[in-house]
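seq:
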Amino acid sequence: MNAFPIEEIRARFPALRGVDGGMPRVYLDNPAGTQVPETVAQAAYRCLLETNANLGGYFASSLAAEEIVARAHRAMARFLHARCEREIVIGPSMTSLTFELSRSIGRMLQPGDEIVVTRMDHDGNISPWLALAEDRGLTVRWVPFDEETWRVEPQALDAVLSERTRVVALNYASNLTGSINDVRALVQRAHAVGALAYVDAVQLAPHAKIDVQALDCDFLACSSYKFYGPHLGIVWAREAILKELYAYKVRPQTDELPYRFETGTPQIEQLAALAATVEYLESVPPFEAHERALAVHLVEGLQRTGGVRVLGITDPAHFDKRVPTVSFVNESRAPRSIAQELAQQNIFVWSGHNFALETVRQLGIDESEGVVRIGIAHYNCLPEVERTLDALRTLYHRS
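struct:
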């Protein structure tokens, strides 16, 4: 853990210096959204002050704004190992882009065709497909996750695939249990029956490198505010597929990729920040070992706390199959009350189902209560984890 320059990294995030009521802030709410480096905020600031113009003009600020848009697409192409920036579609959120692209895909489907969704996914990669199925008369097939491995196993996917399967929607990592799927193996199963594979990588992107070429998927979605950037969603898709898809757009909008899928004036200041986000991550040394060590310490500490059940992989030998998002339940305290008490100590965590609605349903957890979720990012440090564990021990001792 000492090899990672944690103090240098933390100095790049102004939000980490925040204090409320004399108590430093502990940001462990990261699966819902991370803090940003100062360079990311500065990029948006400079854009608004120096290049604040719409696109398509012949004057300097408009030309500069066009370069910002192009630079953001090039940056995300590098981030995801896309073949080119034409494969990068950027919009307000992963969920909104998935709704949009699912409608485009749906125009190629017929009543009786089948869509596969999993019990492990965030609802942003479930509800768009359920709505499409209702609109187009499609059949939805559900895949459970294995409660021992905490992953969607290829054999479980095989059991629901058929010659009518047209789309398989799956996630890379769970936003509740942290478990990482073997996406390449699942994609291969989908392709074997001629189906498209749509991957939600929102929860993996902050923690590991993504190579869409190696995964061999057809679509991959992520959200930059989950990996230290602005509030934007990004979908990579194969250029050949994007060329064939119908684009819901206004008539004057260009037919060029990827812009025919990006309707309206883009959030140019956010795109400036997006490019800066990728550049920040390109400058950071590997942090997987640092995050893993913190996650091991957190899980082991929770397991020593009476009445706590950690959901997901708990064996440190298998932590390469999970991201450092840790959810738990307690037999005597409701998740909401735990999150509220931690908030009073300026420790930020989440409670509830966290939009992993089908996950808590499969686990038999009351969806109105859900879980307590703690999410580590690479800017977190050991004293923050210790402070959180100490607060939980005190809380449970009072119970």
